[in-house]
Amino acid sequence: MAFGIVGDNLSRSTATGLIRTISAIFNSAVEDGVYRGANPALLPGRILKMESPEDEESADDSEDIDCMTQEESKHSLSVVKNHFGSDYPLYLTALRTGTRQGEWIALAWESIDWRKSFISIKQTVVNGKLRATKNRRGRRIPMTPRLAEVLRERKRAAAFESLASGKPARRWVFPSPTGGPMDPSKLRKEFKKVLLKAEIRADPTFHSLRRTALTGMAENGVPIASLQRIAGHSSIEVTAKCYLNVKPEDHAGSINALSLLDGDGTARVNNRTVKTDGAECEPDANSGVVGVVGYA
Fold this sequence. Notes:
By secondary structure, the chain is mostly helical.
């Protein structure tokens, strides 16, 4: 007997409950002599290939998930900006935060702390429904100055659109045309168009943007403990298993490493403010550049 119940419509926990119920029914039927065969649902764990939360997170960032190089990432962003302009904020958010697809689909404007340059991740979208994040713990992710600038502009455009249409402002940062959370299947199709236009190998999936972002952070100096918090892993062991091979070091701070990925911002290096092209500049109190970022 095959149990084809784990898929897009059921979570693993729901499927587990269903199979255990089926197993109990078969046990009773066998004991009562109503059913003479072996219980096909005797081992629910084996049927579902149950994993611990850490294993699920590892699968989320497994070695099977391909990712782009930093050069490919920057090139793809340039292509998106020049040819798919309206999608640029979305791709930049994905590649500068390392959030899971469902998390930034569920990103609401009230989750952005403009003053402290943080994005709070508290919810995700699974099968079109809002749920708590994967490990049910919220986290805060620092925004690079470039990302903050792009999202501010998107918020201004959304406010203008709302005023012009006379409709209430949309809650979501990246809404669907109807105003609700966007459809992941549409995103996948759009991503294929980006890869084709950018002439990048077709192996990366949209989910691999997360792996690309987190690998880039590690390679540019985000400490492993900070990377764990940004990724939302339940333990540092999960993060180390996925990203320790890039040997991250504690440089000037997470925000600086993230800013370096932009290639057009500023960062604190050796106690001085520099542009990412290497030129030195004067500190600007309004620039949003900080040396070390704290987490909660």
